[in-house]
């Protein structure tokens, strides 16, 4: 069982920056995807960014593209989401999500989330 723990959320002003971290308990999957999702109050959870093992650079939702950078440090078992030029619409709970692909069988792991609040 893989554990995911997010941190780095908090209160920021419009135009500011935050870097979220997702530390995992360590995994040896060679085929996986790591995602960031967010959920604003009263709204459904929405996809923010994805990094797929050996599948090129991360991909981003239109709402954050150009303002967000996803990266991973394998030595630290940590995935990051660096957010710039924050907007009030970025407010929400941010979750990291790991999908393991084992021969076509997918296992999903979620963190507990970290709150991001952007004031106008």
Q: How do the helices and strands line up, and which of them pair or pack?
A:
Blueprint: E1 4-7, E2 10-13, E3 18-24, E4 32-39, E5 46-52, E6 59-60, E7 68-73, E8 78-83, E9 92-102, E10 105-110, E11 114-119
Parallel strand pairs: 2-11
Antiparallel strand pairs: 1-3, 3-8, 4-5, 4-9, 5-6, 7-8, 9-10, 9-11
Helicity level, as a percent range?
A: under 10%
- Summed up, the helix count is 0
Look at the helices and sheets and give the structural class: mainly beta
Strand content: over 45%
Overall 3D shape: globular
Average pLDDT rating: 94
| N-to-C span | 40 Å
**Radius of gyration, in angstroms, nearest whole number:** 14 Å
Q: Could you name the ranges where pLDDT drops below 50 across 5 or more consecutive residues?
A: none
Largest sheet: 7 strands, mixed
Number of strands: 11
**Order of H and E elements:** EEEEEEEEEEE
Describe the fold and architecture.
With 120 residues, the protein is mostly beta strands. The protein contains no helices and eleven strands. Strands 2, 4, 5, 6, 9, 10 and 11 form a seven-stranded mixed beta sheet that branches. Strands 1-3-8-7 form a four-stranded antiparallel beta sheet, with no helix packed on it. It is globular.
Quick overview of this protein structure:
By secondary structure, this protein is mainly β. It has no helices and eleven strands.
Key traits:
mainly beta; 4-stranded antiparallel sheet; about 0% helix
